[in-house]
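Appendix B. Chain record.
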Amino acid sequence: MTKRRLYQISIWLLLISILLVLSAAIYPNPASNMLLNSQFDAGLEGWQVVNTENASFQVLEQKPETRLLLQLSTGASENWIGIGQRVVVKPFQTYLISFDYRLMAPKYSSDKLILRITEFDRGGVPIQADEVSTSEALLADPLWSTFQYQFITDLASAEIEIGVAVLGVQNLSLELDNINLKPMPRWYNKIIHTPLSLLGVSLFALVTIVTTGTITWQQRYKLLDTVDKGIRTPMFGGLKNISQIFLGFWLSILAGNFLVRHILCEHVISFDCPYHWPVSMMNLRWPTIGNLLTAIGVLVLFVIFIQYFPRYRYGLAPIIAGGILLLMGSTLIQGWYNGFSWPIIEDHLHRGTQYYHDAMDFESVEDILTNFNERHLSLHKHTKTHPPGTLITFFTLERILHNINAISIAIGVISIVLSIFFLYRILVTEISRSSALYATLLFILIPSIQIYYIASIDALIAAFLLGFLYCYFQRNWLISFVGASISLFLASMLTFGVIFALPIVFGYDLLRWQFRKALGISIIVGLLYLWLYLVFDFNYWAAFFSASHTESIELSQGFLLLVSPISYVFTRIEGVLELILFFTPFLALLMIRGFKEPADGSRLIALSKLSLLTFALLFAAGVFRTGETARIGMFIYPYLFFPVAFYLSKLNLSFREENVLMFLVFMQTILMQLFGFYLW
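Structure tokens predicted for this chain:
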């Protein structure tokens, strides 16, 4: 090894060491307790005492330790009796709460020792409260017991109140000590603050430097040119290579996160800002060996599939089969629980706030429709902002499949099959059959589809709205009117956001003074809801206004621009960037170039422009405040994809060039699945 090579390695190791030191300073090891006076050394300072009428709170001192003695008197009411403390937290951060306790008297108690976690937004308004019982029965024991509970804070959480108390009516003496609240370390904390991880990072960097140092710059250029060759100029319009697109976009995202989240939001002005801005509902994670092996297996499957794909361009069957396998595989990177079970049951906090839990409280589909209006406001936050179709879907699938994972898979399979069929049939009306098949396959590889189609009710909504678009423009009267009406009805039973599709297709026809189809479909859907009202007493409009009022109250008490202008501006930017991120920067650039191409008479381009106008109006109205825009607004992605397919069809790309583009899109999906956990 030459002196020059040793010098280069030394410089690299020095830079890595400096980076790690700076990282350790920026991201300190979160090992300290966030609660004040957790061992009661200063008495009850820092703690709020709740309900002292029927209880006494005494700090016992036994050198060198202190502890709290809580005693309930006879006839105590069934109210919360205990202590609490409020602390500042970060949204979407995992925390661990623990405390020691022991029952002194009586020997056996039927009372419950309860941990309560109440979350507050920046305005001090309670968001939600969770209670967890340590045990159904307390037994006297001279030895201390320890209780631990892990939870994740809500999207809008700024503070939480931790309370430990007894709920009971009998005489009781209980001791508490060491009440701790700590943030769980994120993956970068584990790397920075763990000696073995630091050693591993250093060794990895050293091996990488030595290995890549054996490749000359000329060889590196050839490798890069091999990847970029053929798609460099015609596809992306003058950019030297795809690395500029990839690195430029991700560096912009990282810089935006640092500027908005860690400077503006924390030190300049407070506003509705998710921790991983502009991605609102996500936690970074460090993949396990199993996750990595699964990702490698999925990539091998993908490479085999695209190698043989050109030989089977004779129909949709290979695309449907490959789409289902890749969707299952990429979701499995998250693991069975995180990928298939958690989006439906979300039981890591024991909240039970998903559609599934509400659906299980009903006895039949008739019960759901008949009592939905009456029970609407008593349902959980997800269900009460949607029509009853969400409950009917999960109720029916549970009765048929009796398995959470099977329900998730069924939703994904139904959604992907319908989306592939409808999108292909739409595209083939304006571009060649082979181009439409390729574009359809490319569409199902984008991150938003691969991440959110399994288990998400929004996937079914996107599929039904795509079916509505397909049927609407069919020449056959029966398919056009009946098919479009049924598709629109099914979508409207799952979301009130179905209003997005109406201005697009209705506006397209109304601009051409064609009123009959729009009017006819509106009448058919209206008659279907009239039938539901007469037979089941379900009032769709009452549910819609109730949901709108509930969402308005829970989110901001009014129009976001007037209530919080800063939040309005940055959530608009956040939503747009999130849409692009889950669409990939490559397809976003191709979409722009597709709009620039002459497209006189193209219905698809016209519909795409109308969709962007409609979406912009919804954004301006304050819709998608802070939430998973890429999931909730999934129905816009087919419209964004129309100009991409239109542009690619004009390039006459080779099979190799098409495969490179598919690899770029799917590789971003794999990386996002590996390093992100997307909260629903």
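Further analysis of this model is presented in Appendix C.
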